[in-house]
Amino acid sequence: MTTSNSPKSGDAVQPGDRECMPFDYDEGEWAPVIEAQYQELAAVVVKGRPDACLERIRSAFDFAREKHRPHVRESREPYITHPIAVARIIADLGLDEVSLISALLHDLVEMSDVTVEDIRAMFGDDVALIVDGVTKLERIVKDVFSGERIPQTPIRSDDPDRPVEDPHVRRRREDARRAANLRHLFFAVAEDLRVILVKLADRLHNMRTLKAKASEDQRRIGSETEQMYAPLAHRVGIWQIKWELEDLAFRYADPEEYERIAALVAQTRAERQSEVDEAVSILQTHLVGSGLTNAHVTGRAKHLYSIYQKMRNQGVDFADIYDLVALRVIVPSRNQCYEALGFVSAIWRPLPHTYADYISKSKSNLYQSLHVKVIGPQGKPIEVQIRTWDMHRTAEFGVAAHWAYKEHGEGGQAVADMDRRISQLRKELFEWSRDAPDSGTFLRQVLQNLFGDQVLVFTPKGDPIDLPAGATIVDFAYRIHSDVGHRAIGAKVNNRFAPLSYECKSGDTIEVVTRAGAVPGRDWLTLARTAHARAKIKSYFRRLSLDENADRGRALLQSEAERTGIEPQKLRDERLREVAKDLNYPGPRELLAALGNGSASLRSVLRRLAPAQPLQPRGITIGPRRADDSRLRVTLGGLDNVMYRRSRCCLPLPREDVVGYVSRGRGIVLHRATCPNLRRYQDLEAERVVPVEYTVAPGQVLAVSLRVVAIDRRGLLADLSTVITDLKVNITRVNTQSHKDGTATLSFGVEVRDAIEYNRMSDRIHALPDIISVDRPTSGMGRDQ
User: Which of 457-466, 539-548, 641-650, 749-758 is modeled with the greatest confidence?
Assistant: First the structure.
């Protein structure tokens, strides 16, 4: 089972790029070529699947050929050559008859008058489902991951009766649309993973024939393949497709760097081949002589993209990379893998910290092998991989091996593991589609779970759980169940207690420890690494405060409506329900709660409640300065009323970490513990940095700076000032600056009692739409001496 690497002529035609070329090829001249290609495909099918129904496959081929008759690739070849090539890849992977037929038909719905229902009537439900999924997959994924750029300024309509549309509302609606499309797709993929496999075969052939495209399209498609399809092949464990997609994507996305590395590799090819041949001969002879007579040893050069990645990630030159080749040892049984490892270590000295056992702790895509790096016969590092034939098949073909095992009645434990892995993948896809509370969370889950690095851990019953690398016990607990997550206090990891902050490692067996009455802490949001867990934690706290925030939101809405002259009947739940739907909230209660906690804009809601009524612009009241540092109380070493002042560079507040600097003749200068100026003093004059106690008189306020960076939009300043003044915080100054990249920086002078009040204000601002960052700026080096 090997996919063909021979180049195929033609062109990679993408959805959206499928304008048919003029019908200018000689059908009679091409007929024997097309028939020969089909016969080659049929021969591979018969060899791999003697029981396959060739009549049904031929029927699908004839149908596709007829419907594609008007279609020509940009290379001037008949379009039917592409479905044949895709089906050939599917056959080489050992996939079943349904997959082969789906590959032959996969472009018909998009390119002809054939419908999914037509395919269902002729070839059955399974084929129809796969063709429908493949038809949608590339268009939807491209839409989700590239997306339409949403303008940063309000959209004006030529229709005077149509209200001006806020950019952040439009962006939220676009995210909801993309997420809804992707949800529908994932339900189809979860129902039949062969959708992914046929799509990967389609993309692989398109990449093999990409040279017929213009250079601009080559770069775009190459970059898209590197970012989406190669990681997808890795996720389903098909190494053979993954590495070829990576090399081809590298070739077209960055042709200059590709050619440079290819030339460097070519210069040393003969020398490396000599090293490989010598190492293979030595190891094969030693293993056979030691009793492993069925051991099979081969050598391979690492592909160009992996070399490029190593050079980039490790910051090394090509000349500094020595492990450009790897040896692969394949033996009949698992026990013999460990025997072979001992023999390898006896021949060549292993390099420290390079041994990895992916047999006892397999990777999340079921990859299994022993890995070790040794100093080879010519004194250069060589990587050795050791696995069984079943492990090799799974490593090469991933979940595609499932259908080959099933068809031939082979595999034993490998089939059971594959069944469990496919079941787990389907469960994950359903969970992503079902559980995300909003479109933004859903899209983040897709990016993180589908394209990020993964670890595979196990429940006490042995059930596998996939988690993103870096996931903690909190993430694991919420993957089990929301109630388990809410009540978790720690876990037993490999029978040893671990805190909630423990980062899960592949192979861990984890049992969550819960306690009745335990509840999540807000700091869990910093422990959770997955969007799924963070969404569950946020949902818990939203439920706690939903009623309170809804009451507050209704009061704010009524007050603002009264101030702007909006009639009370327009605030009824029937109208609020329409506005909530327009703004992508489940209902009026959730919309009011969002107003109450500051995550929704009052003006956006009022504009929809009364679109024809002009809203008076909200002014920003700059209040008189009330801050007075003279009422501070500072204690140093039990002495009160020492001479002091707050440093202008960081303006420290009570109830946060504050340190004093003993200046020369100017008393104690108070700094925040995180102030960069203080760190300089600690380095130069550590003896002058002293601890202090810092309090303020009841009711007293202190001046502090606030800086907000956000996506620039109409009403941004008004929304920010509303949040600040609603908290009874006085604004003493405002400066705004718009930037060319569509963002804006707004600097406020405000007066607060302490750090708690400041942090409450910062959290409310963070909850507003389009906020990028909120911080307290510090100035340059002070003059405290």
Answer: 749-758
Per residue in 472-515, pLDDT (tens digit) is 999 999 988 889 999 999 999 998 999 999 999 887 899 999 98
Q: Map 99-158 to HEC letters.
A: HHHHHHHCCHHHHCCCCHHHHHHHHCHHHHHHHHHHHHHHHHHHHHHCCCCCCCCCECCC
CA distance readout (Å), 65 to 59, 101, 105, 554: 10, 13, 9, 63
DSSP state of 535: H
486 is a domain residue = no
Q: Give, in order, the Cα–Cα distances in Å from 594 to each of 575, 607, 656, 673, 718.
A: 16, 16, 29, 35, 17
In the block, tokens 């039949």 appear at 192
Pairing of strands 296-301, 325-331: antiparallel
Asked if 51 and 103 touch (Cβ cutoff 8 Å), the reply is: no
Number of domains in the chain: 4
Which parts of 518-583 fold into alpha helices (H)? 524-527, 531-564, 573-582
Establish if 713 belongs to a structural domain: yes
Which own/partner pairs from 574-578 qualify as long-range (CB within 8 Å, at least 24 positions apart)?
Answer: 575/609, 576/609, 578/608
Contact (Cβ atoms closer than 8 angstroms) between residue 366 and residue 360: no
For residue 277, give the CATH number of its domain. Answer: 3.30.460.10
128, 119 in Cβ contact below 8 A?
yes
For residue 464, give the 3-state DSSP assignment: strand
Confidence of residue 442 (pLDDT cuts 50, 70, 90): low
212 touches 10 (CB < 8 A): yes
| Boundary (domain end) residue, out of 562, 591, 609 | 609
Residues 51 and 134 in one domain: yes
756 vs 42, 762, 763, CA distance in Å?
73, 10, 11
For residue 482, the 8-state DSSP code is H
Paired sense of beta strands 381-388 and 296-301, if any: unpaired
Return the CATH number at 759: 3.30.70.260
CA dist list (Å): 424 to 99, 239, 286, 479: 21, 20, 41, 12
Determine which helix (DSSP H) or strand (DSSP E) holds 382, and give its type and residue range. Answer: strand 381-388
The pTM of the full predicted model, rounded to 2 decimals, is 0.56
With vertex at residue 689, the alpha carbon angle to CA 684 and CA 695, rounded to the nearest 5 degrees, is 150
Shared-domain flag, residues 239 and 348 = no
Q: Report the candidate in 435, 514, 522, 528 with the shortest Cα–Cα distance to residue 474.
A: 528
Residue 563 tokens, joined: 């101030």
Residue numbers of the domain that contains 558: 537-609
439 occurs within a structural domain: no
Residue 625 CB coordination number (10 Å): 13
Query: Is residue 207 in some structural domain?
Result: yes
Q: Are residues 772 and 667 in the same domain?
A: yes
